Amino acid sequence: MNTRIAGKKVLTIILAGGKGSRLAPLTDQVAKPAVPFLGTYRLIDFSLSNVVHSGLQDVWIIEQYLPHSLNTHLAGGRPWDLDRTRGGLEVMPPFSGPQDGDGGFAEGNAHALALHTELIRDSGAEVVLVLSADHIYKLDYAPVIEQHLKTGASVTMVTTEIRDESEATRFSNVRADGQGKVTEFAYKPEEPLGRTVACEVFVYGTELLLSTLSQLEQEGQLGDYGEHLLPRLVERGDAYTYPLEGYWLDVGTLSAYHQAHRDFLDGIGLALDDPKWPFITSSITRPPTRIRPEGTINESFVCGGAEIAGTVVRSLIGPGAVVEQGAEVRDSIVLAGAVIQAGAQVGRAIVDRDAIIGAKAVVGGRSANARLCVVGAAARVEAEATLRPNLQVPPGAHLRAGNEEKVAEELSGEH
């Protein structure tokens, strides 16, 4: 049974298969959609919560990279009331068929859709809503779908205005006329078209989507949908935008991930406690946070089960994390189960789950302009060792005083 919007059957597809290399080392052992956010949420929670609050009940999650970490969190769709006998949440794992030879792994998000064309057709959906799983925003998709049907668009793309125009080179750039019709589209251009970018929320008519994917497959031009699929539909002259009002951020890089946490601390993120639109997650029940007499917390988020005996300033302390006496954590993200031992100094850093920062170790910088540094999951920075900005300790590695150059790595690529 498919959800109906304006009398049309709607299928929602969330693309959750990307490797997320720009978020490494956070994604070295966990799929990007399952990366924690604000300690208690996962990135995919925002798309899934928007889906269910929009009245959409038929949701496919297309997976590829490290799917087990994501499946554990999804719990069959139960936290979002999507565990249904008919419809609901369906996980689409990587697969191969007779035509795929040794494998059917997707090489881009348009290719991921193309691999499922027969299943999409068999679903009976007349409209396909395609979402990414690593953006933080609130949106009712029903009006977007209604506008799409009213205009008869080949594709409707939700757009937003980003803060820094130079960042537009990371996204699909869009220009539209006064009626919202797309007049120009550029995928990750060297020179931005402006501050308007696509939010990776797209509505398609099923038949046109499938026929266009088929044509592109015959031409060997699938890849990501910004490369060929969207330009092909824009060329028709009937692509439209739907401007998103309110907060939106792609947290696909370490710097954006860190910035999103700062935004919520500054009160410019989303209202997470809106009873009409709660953001839903699947989480473990934790005991209360414990603040020791010597602990000091200023302008921070502290999750259940954490224990604070040191100083925490403008930071997130995740579930079960510990900040011991004399330790300082500033402008940082400390994820679940991590321990900051006595006297350690952590600044502008991301400390992944179960990592340990030894006594009197120094991680990151104090300057507001210092580059980030990252300590991977279950890694250890031993007592009195130093991890400079723009460096990472890989998951499970040990950084000791004197061996920093052998263990620490430069943060690679765009972060």
UniProtKB/TrEMBL annotation:
Pfam families recorded for this chain? Hexapep_GlmU (PF24894), NTP_transferase (PF00483)
Q: Which domain of life is it from?
A: Bacteria
Q: Which InterPro entries match?
A: ADP-Glc_PPase, ADP_Glu_pyroP_CS, GlmU/GlgC-like_hexapep, NTP_transferase_dom, Nucleotide-diphossugar_trans, Trimer_LpxA-like_sf
Citing just one GO molecular function, the answer is: nucleotidyltransferase activity
Residues annotated as domain Glucose-1-phosphate adenylyltransferase/Bifunctional protein GlmU-like C-terminal hexapeptide: 294-365
Family the entry assigns: Belongs to the bacterial/plant glucose-1-phosphate adenylyltransferase family.
Protein name in the entry: Glucose-1-phosphate adenylyltransferase
Q: Which organism is it from?
A: Deinococcus piscis
